[in-house]
């Protein structure tokens, strides 16, 4: 929210109460509690009237300092972001006091508090990270006539009857809490969830309020109240409702955070590296579970508005198999159910007369898992609608009637997942689908959740529930799959999410056009999401809206198959490769085979994400924070620490351009080609290629060729590829725990299975030009020694 007119004046009618002077300090076990006046206190008379703000400065875990700002102290709200849901906090705290200040220290992070003027300065061992200076915190009364935020003026408020959805007159003013942190020269801001605009967020206004707006707008399906800087800290805003963030867009050298109400909390998260910041943030908000290895294969969809039946589906799968492009997951989009009945959770008998028999047949014949599309909306024409009404399973208006509207489906209502009986009812519908062979669900929608003049079963604040709804929806479905199919077998394909939603993967980027620009939007969305605590990211290969030209389709396929999860999906046209030429199918087969062969590396990254919170797809600056050039790069990324991927976003006749950091890098496709960075490369890239480079010092483990699937025994017939490994010992872990060790010493390299069991098929000393060598190894050998000369 912007409160000022220029830098000196307030907007008309705004009344501020700035936190100015600490009048009392109480030391607690986890920090300090401050009472801060909003007027200078010169004598006792100044203590009469005016807001006094309570500020708690505390540390919940190592390397993290929280600042909780309260005006009126209400009872604890019913809707909160779960903290430490699957990892324990690590206490690390020291408190000290001097004549001038109070200091809280934890794992290299210091918060220094001064009383008059009231300030908080956050320091690392090397420098000041940021600070909240005089007048950086306060409460603001804003005239309601000009402060209609998303939470009071969203299209969610529309009704099918056209009646006023917000009948009570607004108050004359609305109270906000606002807090600002300094932006240093050269400091850059990233994150806020899946944002499709500029990768660097400086100069933007960001609303943390989930909306269904596509990838070509400033709205987002997965808003996350967390941002990271290139200055060794991140900020997690612990508020589930609408939060407005001015990133140098109101005061150009500050990040301002505001929300309606009387309480705001944020955490400064320090890290020596960006990845350590993510480790500490995901310790607080959660890390993903281990995903099934089959999810990393190719997903193929029926597309949305296309006409399809069981015959169509079988034709797709046979065509993919015939072209050596094996599908691992087949997805049935909306029209597996009858039109106007979404959701009924029942296969359309006209197109699928025997769904159980048919799913069993294609699973056996084509080796696929089955995914079906669902959402939490129930059409009035669905055969189960009356069940929901009679059971009280839907979100209700204040008068007790179900909340309904006509957007998307006729008279749809929305399941109220705060009602345990509604959850049981919904789960029963999904259980019946699992019984007939469904393996996973695409949990679509959950952004347009009403918040005005509605009530939830458990009395939750509707505004605080708006973003959190996507979490409880996805958690319910994910836990069902885990309970039914077993630990490590659950996966979603979800669109909406929020802070902590990384615990219920996978997420894809929503509705994008079939253009170069939309492909770049999808990448920015992926990179912003994985900078916000999410380990995995996907997108609609080829774009959703429209029919992509063959060239864009092929470039998007390459980008998609070097993403963590890869799905072919569109709206009104199919995304099977032969629709774009047989050459497209041939190229897809090559790229898919490459992804399958990389599974020992990729799946180990996925396992590590459950332990550390590190993403698979990484913005370049996550791996190279000392290289300032990488801080702006948003058209290339690292797949884990070792592979640089630079998708092509220009027509074939134009040159693409990408950046290689320092060191001697080796081309993934042609090991005889090396380049020494830092350097910008400009080149024309053939349509059957994508620039992929291997980082110097890499020990890359790959599986055997032509596995035909992503899930196989990663310890058998390994290909060990060495890229300028350093003197001494280098280790790599095979999924399952086997450790491969490389010892380089005195001109010799020894490759050993150091722990566990594995068989090595090839050892490849790559990136040495004319000195490149490949050694074929007899199956079962666990130690290889050869000279470098």
TrEMBL record:
GO biological process, one term: carbohydrate metabolic process
Start and end residues of each Glycoside hydrolase family 31 TIM barrel domain: 288-605
Gene Ontology molecular-function annotations: alpha-D-xyloside xylohydrolase; carbohydrate binding
Enzymatic reactions: Hydrolysis of terminal, non-reducing alpha-D-xylose residues with release of alpha-D-xylose
Pfam assignment, any one: Glyco_hydro_31_3rd
UniProt entry tagged with the keyword Hydrolase: yes
Protein family membership: Belongs to the glycosyl hydrolase 31 family.
Alphabetical keyword list: Glycosidase, Hydrolase
Superkingdom per UniProt: Eukaryota
Glycosyl hydrolase family 31 C-terminal domain span: 613-699
Entry EC number(s): 3.2.1.177
Entry protein name: alpha-D-xyloside xylohydrolase
Domain Glycoside hydrolase family 31 N-terminal: 55-245
